[in-house]
Description:
6 strands
Amino acid sequence: MSRVAPVRAGDVIQVAEPDYCYGVGSITLRITTVHYLVYLDDGPWVVVDGIPLWPNGYEGEERYAQIRVTGIQHLPGGPASRTTS
Length: 85
């Protein structure tokens, strides 16, 4: 099992409500800090800080989140979506 976090600072991700602690509804985050991976009974989770991004263009206050690795969906705009030649 990999010990490398599947996200890095600058990535933009979306996560459904059941796949992060804590909040209501899905969340889109621009990752600012990746703290560590934690392995729980239901698999790996990554602990991060990030800026919530809302559909209206508003950026929320930086927040802490614990995210289930299998629930991460990378979105265009962050480093993970770019390719190098």
